[in-house]
Prior knowledge:
The structure is a homodimer. Chain A is mainly α. In chain A, 66% of the residues lie in helices and 8% in strands.
Amino acid sequence: MGKNSAFDLQEFLPYLLNQAAEASSLEFQQLYKDRYGMLRAEWRVLFHLGLYGSMTAGEIGRRAKVHKTKISRAVQRLADRRFITRQKDEADRRVEHLSLTESGHAAYADLSRAARDYDAALSARLTPAEATSLRAMLRKLAQA
Amino acid sequence: MGKNSAFDLQEFLPYLLNQAAEASSLEFQQLYKDRYGMLRAEWRVLFHLGLYGSMTAGEIGRRAKVHKTKISRAVQRLADRRFITRQKDEADRRVEHLSLTESGHAAYADLSRAARDYDAALSARLTPAEATSLRAMLRKLAQA
DNA sequence: TTGTAATAGTTGCTTTTGTAACTAACAAGG
DNA sequence: CCTTGTTAGTTACAAAAGCAACTATTACAA
Lengths: 144, 144
């Protein structure tokens, strides 16, 4: 952060993190927005289901650290567009098990491929060792 | 990003960047929100003015990569609350030169001190070498 | 000139987010 | 059984962000 006196915005970690996060998100966002009209919360729900199989809204929210109202609305839109199905739990009828439909799987397959490519392109700006250490550092910082 | 087959969300750079950025922003956001009732865009305008002196709305927007409507509204709220003043340029009467009032300077001094402390606390989770390389990498990734 | 394009900044309208209150279902002690 | 508390998810309303159209001013070239 420079000297003891002047504050330098260009060195401020939250600022740098935001710039990098925004730049990389915005670019990737075009993909799921253009191809499937999805919002970021929807994309995250889709990816969690594609990755971990059936989950409840609450589980997704906790894991992705997304508020439940965002999840709720994302789930509704995804269900409306037949990307996912909701199945009431018989034992505890408050919870719903979510899973991908066929077209949900197709969208997930397509987007996860794109994500892998995009991640590779981003990582290519760094050495492999840097990329590894960057991920580790980001995980540390995320546990605020 | 692992093998050629499975996609791992926990390794996806945009995801990690977002988690880290959100965690660090939210925490710091409490400060300027609680103390001065500021939004993020307002805080950014304030900081740019505190740091670089008088600037126009457009200059701030370009440098911070924030859309001009956001800046315009942030400037309005800051001016309403007497944190900044607007001075029309005599040569080109489309542009306004913004600068901090006395209380704007006071808020900036207070918040920049807090920012420095917060940044130090964040950086302390890393080694000095790591912190340096992290900043360099984030700058690279921000140039999407 | 004057007509066309460009730039700074603002405003109006729509979409998205955030917050809090709400419904419905379960849990557990008395 | 009741009452109280908790959890899952939804909804209503307010705050904020995004987008496009708009005003005012300057630039510049025919």
